[in-house]
Amino acid sequence: MAAQHRGLTVWFTGLSASGKTTLCNAVYQRLAARGCKLEPLDGDTARKHLGKSLGFSREDRGENIRRIGFVAGLLTRNGVITLAAISPCRTVRREVRASIGDYMEEYVNAPLDVCEARGPKGLCRKARAGQLPGFTGIGDPYEPPLRPEVECRTDRGSLEESVGKVLAAVGRALSG
Hints:
Number of strands: 5
CATH topology: Rossmann fold
Helix content: 40-55%
CATH architecture: 3-Layer(aba) Sandwich
């Protein structure tokens, strides 16, 4: 992969604290070192700028994901590799995949108990205490992808193994 490449959206999905952001950042660093045109789309940052008016109901979270997907689609059409780390709902991910086309899904998979233990913000603990109603994986279901292009078991493998899997899949997608 070199600086001349077509656009692609790489969509990382998984529970909170599964390792989505860590993996996304590591993939970003490796692709940036190769001179790729990249743009990370962080769910929290996008919500702050694109979804200020939205709450955290299932419907509002879906709309936030659609907005992020719209931006990812624009970037992808303009030759940018877009890295997005979000999205608990399978239906909305399917919508985004269909709207973008050049899209691949990375399932960052770790069991809920592992995510709860490693969560740096203590969000799972707060959700269990009733302070975050509708929190994905506890108060609201997480819907794992049925056929992701890549599955990274972050509770079983190293970060480098996961990065290698994603980079190999990105390389295949861009060369195909």
